[in-house]
């Protein structure tokens, strides 16, 4: 998928927060099913990091939680759990992200995994943020995976852009603390 220069210029002006998402869509269109799952999971992990940074107290302590070797919230799984625990995401999104992560893990840990594998197809059919039609093959599974992930990505990017993710203010501090 290639966007025209005019379209990209318009998006940069009107929706700069969506530029990474457009680049993701371009990359995704060139990827194999394995690559698409892994790239999509990476984008979800990145947006969860941004959501958590936007909510947590600004400073080194928050960065240490999310970045670096053995960071307590350094894994996709930990980020999903933390995002749910502090009210950033709904239970439905937690469930959806856990399914997307489980599908990603199948590809990350098995060189023979395909979207047509029964276990992966079943997980894709459990996803709820997509069309109601169940997948019967790898193409349908990829569509369901992509649609679910895109719903989360776009809503998250819009929330970050619109400032609806509110930073925690420590007890005893003024808002500028």
From TrEMBL:
GO terms for biological process: negative regulation of DNA-templated transcription. InterPro entries: MtlR-like (IPR007761), MtlR-like_sf (IPR038026). This is Mannitol repressor.
């Amino acid at each position: 998928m290639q966007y025209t220069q005019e379209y990209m210029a318009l998006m940069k002006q009107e929706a700069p927060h969506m530029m990474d998402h457009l680049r993701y869509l371009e990359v995704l269109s060139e990827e194999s099913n394995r690559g698409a799952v892994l790239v999509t999971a990476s984008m979800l992990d990145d947006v969860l990091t941004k959501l958590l940074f936007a909510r947590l107290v600004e400073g080194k302590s928050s960065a240490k939680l999310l970045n670096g070797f053995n960071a307590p919230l350094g894994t996709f799984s930990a980020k999903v759990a933390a995002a749910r625990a502090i009210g950033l995401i709904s239970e439905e999104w937690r469930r959806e992200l856990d399914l997307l992560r489980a599908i990603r893990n199948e590809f990350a840990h098995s060189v023979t995994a395909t979207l047509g594998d029964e276990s992966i197809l079943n997980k894709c059919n459990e996803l709820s943020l997509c069309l109601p039609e169940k997948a019967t093959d790898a193409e349908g599974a990829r569509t369901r995976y992509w649609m679910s992930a895109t719903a989360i990505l776009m809503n998250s990017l819009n929330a970050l852009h619109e400032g609806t993710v509110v930073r925690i203010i420590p007890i005893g501090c003024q808002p500028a603390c």
